[in-house]
Design brief:
Blueprint: H1 6-25, H2 40-50, E1 61-62, E2 70-71, H3 81-88, H4 91-118
Antiparallel strand pairs: 1-2
Helix pairs in contact: 1-4, 3-4
Length: 125
């Protein structure tokens, strides 16, 4: 088992090492602001803190943005999975879990693609 899947195990170990600082350091970890903290994370937090997370369509506005003029409908639905992460965990842990999920699925997709279409010699699998 170890010999057959050693490269897969090594790759998953490297992936775990890559996301480990997000879990170990929590809110003190280094996160690039590009596409992370500038919008989405803030939106999730504001919608959850507004108390109108499961509001009906067209009924309420989010009062923390632009003086109560942004409707709740302009944000993600309450059925989006990443919103549930921010509801269950604190913001730094929810961000870390979402990064882990994203990177695991990206790795598995690339691994399956490489296995089926790129690697011709089966001794490397």
């Amino acid at each position: 088992m170890w010999k057959k899947h050693k490269w897969l195990i090594v790759a998953l170990l490297l992936l775990a090492i890559y996301v480990a600082p997000l879990f170990i350091l929590g809110g003190n970890s280094h996160v690039r602001i590009h596409d992370n903290l500038d919008s989405n994370m803030t939106w999730y937090k504001m919608v959850l803190d507004s108390g109108d997370y499961t509001a009906k369509v067209g009924t309420t506005n989010i009062d923390q943005i632009m003086d109560d003029s942004v409707p709740r409908d302009s944000f993600d639905s309450e059925f989006v999975g990443i919103d549930w992460l921010y509801m269950i965990f604190s913001a730094p842990i929810a961000f870390a879990v979402s990064q882990l999920i994203t990177r695991v699925f990206a790795f598995l997709g690339l691994f399956l693609w490489a296995r089926d279409y790129l690697i011709k010699d089966k001794k490397y699998l």
